[in-house]
């Protein structure tokens, strides 16, 4: 790869007429509002990727669950494996059950991403370590669809220590919080199972938020922003 290849404009994705029509039908991105946490529909997403490089690795699978009316709606679940070619796999990917055969049998990335954004609709997203998922999903959407992701993401990994300060578990991973709350989660470490574990954790955190008089997505995000700014100031 040329040293200056990153300066070149990205190629415009080639989409079929049907894909173009589906892209145009996607609803506009929402903002975080002042409705109650219970009344908000949330999409909890987890991605499996070919590695952890934000600029080189690719999204291999998407798993998502829905929180609606204060509960996980198992009838609303999403899972897609994306077809990827000529992409070396990180050994950790094999631990998630995504071997070469599964990836070779995956969906066209443009169709899979359109399916996912249709599933998301105008809902905000939740993820554990959300900045990573947000970046990787945004880049995949840009590369495959020319679509700019603007949906808000809330980071469950940051909410947990904010709302449970006595747990003394800063920088803890999802497994640590699952054990802390004695959640019964089976078949961890694939996208759908990790999304379900994150959704169960999010419900506990929403209950803690309401007890602290934070009962809207906007209020919760504002408190999280304040808490993170204070952390940054104290780190200097």
Automatic annotation (TrEMBL):
Residues 41-211 form the Exonuclease domain. GO terms for molecular function: exonuclease activity. It comes from the Bacteria. Keywords: Exonuclease, Hydrolase, Nuclease. This is 3'-5' exonuclease. The lineage of its organism: Bacteria, Pseudomonadati, Pseudomonadota, Gammaproteobacteria, Pseudomonadales. The keyword Hydrolase applies. It comes from Pseudomonas lundensis. InterPro entries: Ribonucl_H, RNaseH-like_sf, RNaseH_sf. The keyword Nuclease applies.
């Amino acid at each position: 790869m040329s040293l200056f290849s990153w300066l070149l404009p990205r190629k415009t994705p080639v989409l079929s007429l049907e894909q173009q029509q589906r892209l145009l039908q996607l609803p506009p991105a929402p903002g975080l509002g002042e409705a109650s946490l219970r009344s908000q529909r949330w999409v909890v997403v987890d991605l499996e990727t070919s590695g952890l490089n934000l600029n080189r690795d690719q999204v291999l699978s998407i798993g998502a669950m829905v929180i609606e009316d204060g509960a996980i709606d198992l009838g609303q679940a999403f899972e897609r494996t994306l077809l990827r070619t000529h992409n070396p796999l990180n050994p950790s990917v094999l631990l998630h059950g995504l071997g070469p055969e599964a990836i070779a049998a995956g969906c066209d990335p443009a169709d899979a991403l359109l399916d996912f954004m249709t599933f998301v609709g105008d809902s905000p997203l939740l993820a554990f370590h959300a900045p990573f998922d947000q970046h990787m999903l945004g880049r995949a959407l840009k590369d495959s669809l020319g679509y700019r992701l603007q949906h808000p993401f809330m980071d469950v990994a940051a909410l947990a220590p904010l709302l449970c300060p006595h747990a003394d578990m800063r920088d803890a991973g999802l497994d640590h919080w699952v054990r802390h709350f004695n959640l019964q989660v089976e078949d961890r470490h694939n996208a759908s199972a990790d999304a379900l574990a994150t959704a169960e954790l999010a419900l506990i955190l929403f209950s803690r938020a309401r007890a602290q008089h934070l009962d809207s997505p906007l209020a919760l995000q504002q408190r999280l922003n304040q808490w993170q700014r204070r952390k940054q100031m104290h780190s200097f």
